[in-house]
Design a protein that fits this description.
Number of strands: 59
Distance between the termini: 59 Å
CATH class of the largest domain: Mainly Beta
Mean pLDDT: 83
CATH topology of the largest domain: Maltoporin, Chain A
Structural class: mainly beta
Length: 919
C-alpha cells in the first residue's frame, strides 16, 4: 500500500512540474551554515525551500558563482552531504538520502494481472528508486540511512564501515562479528575495532555478536558508501573463574621453532636489579638466551656472539640496547607493547644476522583519553604518557626514563668503580594515525644517552638515535602491505683529560638508513604468502683521535670512512597441507656491496696478511663498488600435530651477516669496532637445524617444550692474540676468520595462570670456535676447537610468582650458570734477565659457577574503578644470598709472584623499593 502511495505521489509531482526557463544567478556565500545559504537563495531566486532543520549539517561552507544555474549552486552546496533536492514550480523540496523520481525507466512498472500493479525486479545497475517497508515487528529497531542516492548508474554494492567500542571504557572491541540477517555475509572487527563490509543497495538488518557484550541490531538503508558505528554494553554473567587467552595454544600451533614471547604486563613483579622492570633481562631467563656476565654488553643466543642478534624497535635497528655497563636495558617497558624473539626458524622477512631477531613493538597510545604510567625507584624514574590527538583517529605515546643517583657505584666491589659516576636517560615517542579501516601510519623516534666516568681522568659517552616510519595499507580483504623507512645512529666517545701532554678525545660512529616493502597475501585457506624487498645503506666512521686541550701533544688520526649497501628480496609460503601438517618454506636472496672511497690492500696469497705481504694498493672513488657478496638463504619450518595439544616441529635456516663487531672486552668500550665486510674480510655464514616437541596440559594451564639444535658457522671474525684493534688502518692484519659450532637442548616448563605461575628453564649448550691457518702466527690452540668466551654448558632459571590475595604477591628469581671460560697463566720463564708469564691455551679454564637468588614482594593499592590512580609498591632484594659472583678474573705480577684477582659487579644483597602508578 505504501509503495502505491509513493507511486501516486511521484506521478502527481511529475504532472506538476512547470517547464520554465532556468533561473541564473550571481551568488556568493562565505563561512555560512546550509540553513543561512538556503535563506539567502530564497531571497535571491524567489523560490521557497521545504526541509526539516535536523537534516541539515552543522558545517560551514563557502562558494562564489557568476551567472550560474540554481542546480549548479545546489549541487556544489550538497555534494558532501546526504541532501538531495527536487525543483517544482516555485518550490524546492529537499530530501534526506533519497531522490524524488518524476519518471521511471522502461519496464519498471509491469502489470501481472488485471487487478494489481507490482514492482518487478530491476537490473542492479539501472537507475531506479530504493523502496523499503516499515515492518511492524521492526519498529523498535532504529533505522539508519547510509549515504546519498545519486542519479548516476548504481553500483552492485557499496562499502559500509565503522568502529565498535565498549560504551563504558570507550576502548575499541576486536573480533566482534558484524552479521547481516537473512544473508550469508558478515565480517569481524580488527584489533582497533574497525570493520568494513560490502552491501547491496536497499534495506538490511545488521547484528553484532561478541563474547562479553550485548548484541545490537540496526536497520540500515544503503544508498551509497558510508559509515555506521556501534557502542556495545557489557553483558556479563558472574562465574567462579573464567580465563581467556587468545594465544594460549600458540606454542603448539605455530610453525616456527625457537620462538619466545614476553608478556610485558606479567613481568612487573619479577625481582630484578635495582627494581627496574627489564624486558631483556627477562629474556635472558628463557632457554637458549644468556649473558656473559652481569656487566656484559650483549646477549648470546644459542651459542652466538653478541653482534649476531638483530634488535629491532618498531622496525628500526638498535645497536646497543643497554645502559650502565649492561646492568639496565635501554628499552622502556612502559611503552613496549610486545616482544617476539626468533632464535630457531627465522622468518624470511628478517635478515642480516646469524643468531636471532628481537622484534620489539611499541604500543599505540590511547586515542580516546589521556592516561599514563610510571615508576619511582632508588636509581631511576620512569614516566609514559598516552595522549589523544584526534579522538578515535590518532594518538601519541611518550616515554622517558633517567637516572638521578650515583650511589650504586659506591657499593660495587671494584676499587676502579667505587669512586666513579654514571648517568643515563632515554626517551621514546610514537605517533599513530588511523586514516580509515585500510590505512594506518606509525612514526617512532628514540634517543638514549649514557655518560660515565670509571676514573677521574676519563669520561665515556655513547648514544643511540633511531627513527622509523611505517605505513600499513590493506590492499584488499586478503592482502596487506607495509612500507617501512628507518634510520639508526650509534656513536661512542671517550675524553681522556690528564695533567700530562697526552689528553685526547676519540670515538667512532655507525649509522644506517633502510627502506623495506613487506606484503602479506592470503591466497586461500591453505596458502599464505609473505614477500618483499629491502635495502640498507651503512656508513661507518671506524675511529678517530684528536688532541684535547692546547697543551696536548697527541697527533690527530682518523680512519677512512666505510660504506656498504645491503639489499634483499624474499618470499615465503605458509602451506597448510592438512589439518595436522603446516609447512612454511621460503628463500631470501641478499647482496652486499662494499663501497668507496677506500684504499684497499692486496696481499700475497701464500703469506699471512701483514704489512710485509702487501702486493699493491688500489684507490676507489666515492660510492664505487669495491667488492660484492651475495647468497641465497634458505628457511624451512614444519609443524605436525601428534595430538590436538601436542606437536612436533622442525626447522632449518641459513643466514648471512655482512657486518661484524670486534672486541676483546665484555663491556662497552672504545675498542669495540664495527667492521663491514670488504675485499679482505668476508661475510659470516651459518646454518641451523632444530627440532622440538611442544605439549600443553590442563586446558593450556601448563606448557612444556623440549628443543634441540645444531648450528654450524663459517668465517667468524676474531682477533689474534695481542691484537691492536682501535685506530688500526689495516685491521685485517690483526683479525682471523674461523669456524664455529654450537649445539644444545632447551627445556621450558611454564605455568600460565593460577595463584602460582611462572616458568622453569634449563639449557645445556656448547659454543666452540676453531681458528686454523697454514701459518702458525694465525693459528689459535693448534687449530683445534676451543670454548668461546660465552660457552656455559649449564644454564638454569626459575621465575616464580605467588599471589597471596588480589593485592599481595611474592616473586622469586633463581639463576644458575656454569662459569664462563678464561685463560689462566700456567707458568713463567726468564729471558734476558726478565720474567715472563706463560698462559694456557685460550679459554681452557673456567671462572667459578654463577648463581643468584632474588626475592620481591608486591603490594597493590585497592582496585576501585573510580580513583585518581592505581598503584603498587615493589620491594625486592637482588642477590639475597650475597653471592660474590666473579664477573672476570685477571692476573697481576707483584714481586715476582703472579696473583689472581676477581672482579664482581654485585657481591652483596641489593635491597630496593619502587613505587609504580598508573592513571
Amino acid at each position: 500500500m505504501k509503495n502505491l502511495v509513493l507511486l501516486v505521489l511521484f506521478v502527481f509531482l511529475s504532472l506538476s512540474v512547470r517547464s520554465q526557463e532556468q533561473t541564473r544567478l550571481d551568488f556568493s556565500y562565505a563561512d555560512e551554515t546550509v540553513e543561512d545559504v538556503l535563506l539567502q537563495l530564497e531571497e535571491a531566486s524567489g523560490l521557497s525551500f521545504f526541509y526539516l532543520k535536523n537534516w541539515l549539517p552543522k558545517d560551514r561552507f563557502s562558494g562564489e558563482f557568476k551567472d550560474a544555474e540554481l542546480e549548479d549552486i545546489l549541487d556544489d552546496l550538497f555534494q558532501n552531504t546526504v541532501i538531495n533536492y527536487y525543483i517544482m514550480d516555485d518550490r524546492v523540496i529537499l530530501t534526506e538520502n533519497s531522490i524524488i523520481y518524476d519518471n521511471f525507466s522502461q519496464g519498471f512498472l509491469k502489470r501481472t494481472d488485471t487487478s494489481a500493479t507490482t514492482i518487478t525486479s530491476i537490473p542492479t545497475r539501472e537507475k531506479a528508486p530504493i523502496f523499503y517497508e516499515e515492518n511492524v515487528a521492526q519498529r523498535r529497531i532504529l533505522t539508519y540511512k547510509i549515504g546519498r542516492e545519486n542519479t548516476g548508474i548504481r553500483k552492485r554494492s557499496y562499502s559500509l564501515s565503522g568502529n565498535v567500542i565498549d560504551v563504558i571504557s570507550e576502548e575499541p572491541l576486536s573480533n566482534v562479528a558484524i552479521l547481516v540477517e537473512n544473508e550469508r555475509t558478515g565480517t569481524a572487527t580488527d584489533v582497533n575495532g574497525n570493520y568494513t563490509i560490502q552491501l547491496s543497495p536497499g534495506e538490511h538488518l545488521i547484528t553484532t555478536q561478541s563474547l562479553g557484550n550485548a548484541s545490537i541490531t540496526k536497520r540500515v538503508i544503503i544508498y551509497n558508501d558510508g559509515s555506521l558505528d556501534f557502542q556495545l554494553d557489557q553483558d556479563l554473567e558472574q562465574l567462579s573463574e573464567v580465563l581467556l587467552d587468545s594465544k594460549s595454544n600458540e606454542n603448539v600451533k605455530e610453525v616456527f621453532t625457537g620462538t619466545s614471547q614476553i608478556d610485558v604486563q606479567r613481568i612487573k613483579t619479577i625481582p630484578l636489579v635495582l627494581g627496574e622492570r627489564d624486558l631483556l633481562k627477562v629474556a635472558a631467563t628463557l632457554p637458549g638466551i644468556s649473558k656473559a656476565g652481569e656487566g656484559s654488553l650483549g646477549y648470546n643466543v644459542r651459542g652466538g656472539r653478541e653482534d649476531q642478534n638483530l634488535i629491532l624497535l618498531d622496525n628500526g635497528l638498535i645497536y646497543n640496547p643497554n645502559h650502565f655497563f649492561g646492568i639496565f636495558s635501554a628499552l622502556n617497558p612502559f611503552t613496549t607493547g610486545s616482544v617476539d624473539i626468533y632464535k630457531g626458524s627465522i622468518p624470511t622477512k628478517f635478515g642480516g644476522r646469524l643468531s636471532s631477531v628481537f622484534d620489539i613493538k611499541t604500543k599505540k597510545g590511547n586515542p580516546n583519553e589521556f592516561s599514563g604510567e610510571g615508576s619511582i625507584g632508588p636509581v631511576t624514574g620512569n614516566l609514559a604518557l598516552e595522549i589523544p590527538i584526534v579522538k578515535e583517529k590518532s594518538s601519541l605515546i611518550v616515554g622517558g626514563r633517567a637516572t638521578y643517583s650515583d650511589w650504586i657505584l659506591n657499593a660495587l666491589d671494584d676499587p676502579s668503580l667505587s669512586n666513579s659516576e654514571a648517568s643515563f636517560y632515554d626517551v621514546i615517542a610514537k605517533y599513530n594515525h588511523q586514516f580509515d579501516a585500510k590505512n594506518e601510519l606509525n612514526a617512532t623516534a628514540y634517543f638514549s644517552n649514557d655518560q660515565y666516568s670509571i676514573t677521574s681522568d676519563s669520561l665515556y659517552r655513547y648514544q643511540n638515535r633511531m627513527f622509523s616510519l611505517t605505513y600499513d595499507r590493506k590492499l584488499n580483504s586478503n592482502m596487506d602491505a607495509t612500507l617501512i623507512f628507518s634510520n639508526s645512529n650509534y656513536d661512542f666517545n671517550i675524553d681522556y683529560n690528564t695533567e700530562f701532554a697526552n689528553s685526547f678525545t676519540s670515538g667512532y660512529i655507525i649509522k644506517d638508513s633502510k627502506i623495506k616493502l613487506d606484503i602479506a597475501h592470503e591466497i586461500n585457506k591453505k596458502h599464505t604468502l609473505n614477500y618483499g624487498l629491502s635495502s640498507k645503506y651503512y656508513v661507518v666512521d671506524p675511529g678517530k683521535i684528536e688532541a684535547l686541550g692546547n697543551e696536548s701533544l697527541v697527533v690527530t688520526q682518523e680512519l677512512a670512512q666505510e660504506k656498504g649497501l645491503e639489499s634483499a628480496i624474499y618470499f615465503s609460503d605458509a602451506f597448510e597441507v592438512n589439518e595436522k601438517l603446516l609447512i612454511n618454506g621460503g628463500l631470501r636472496f641478499s647482496i652486499f656491496n662494499s663501497l668507496g672511497p677506500d684504499l684497499v690492500n692486496s696481499y700475497a696469497p701464500d703469506s699471512p696478511k701483514n704489512e710485509s705481504s702487501i702486493l699493491s694498493q688500489t684507490q676507489y672513488g666515492d660510492n664505487e663498488f669495491i667488492k660484492t657478496y651475495s647468497g641465497l638463504e634458505y628457511r624451512l619450518a614444519a609443524r605436525y600435530f601428534l595430538l590436538e595439544d601436542f606437536s612436533i616441529k622442525a626447522g632449518y635456516s641459513s643466514t648471512l651477516q655482512y657486518i661484524h663487531t670486534l672486541s676483546n672486552n665484555t663491556t662497552a668500550a672504545p675498542t669495540d669496532i664495527y667492521k663491514l665486510s670488504d675485499a679482505n674480510i668476508v661475510p659470516q655464514k651459518a646454518t641451523q637445524y632444530s627440532i622440538g616437541f611442544f605439549k600443553n596440559f590442563l586446558d593450556n594451564e601448563y606448557e612444556l617444550s623440549l628443543e634441540g639444535y645444531y648450528k654450524a658457522s663459517k668465517d667468524l671474525l676474531d682477533f689474534e692474540t695481542g691484537a691492536t684493534l682501535f685506530l688500526n688502518e689495516n685491521i685485517e692484519t690483526e683479525t682471523l676468520q674461523g669456524e664455529g659450532k654450537s649445539y644444545g637442548a632447551e627445556v621450558l616448563l611454564r605455568k600460565n595462570f593460577g595463584d602460582l605461575n611462572g616458568w622453569l628453564g634449563y639449557t645445556y649448550s656448547r659454543s666452540l670456535i676453531r681458528l686454523d691457518s697454514p701459518y702458525a702466527s694465525q693459528r689459535v690452540n693448534e687449530g683445534e676447537y676451543f670454548a668461546s668466551n660465552f660457552d656455559k654448558p649449564h644454564d638454569f632459571s626459575a621465575i616464580l610468582n605467588y599471589k597471596l590475595t588480589q593485592r599481595f604477591s611474592f616473586s622469586a628469581n633463581l639463576v644458575y650458570q656454569t662459569g664462563r671460560p678464561v685463560t689462566y697463566p700456567i707458568g713463567k720463564y726468564v729471558f734476558n734477565n726478565a720474567e715472563y708469564v706463560v698462559y694456557s691455551e685460550r679459554n681452557k679454564f673456567r671462572i667459578p659457577d654463577y648463581y643468584r637468588l632474588d626475592l620481591s614482594f608486591s603490594a597493590e593499592g585497592n582496585h576501585k574503578i573510580e580513583k585518581l590512580a592505581h598503584s603498587f609498591w615493589n620491594i625486592s632484594v637482588y642477590n639475597v644470598l650475597g653471592r660474590n659472583n666473579p664477573y672476570s678474573v685477571f692476573f697481576v705480577t707483584t714481586d715476582g709472584e703472579v696473583k689472581a684477582y676477581q672482579s664482581s659487579v654485585f657481591s652483596v644483597p641489593i635491597p630496593t623499593i619502587t613505587y609504580n602508578f598508573k592513571f
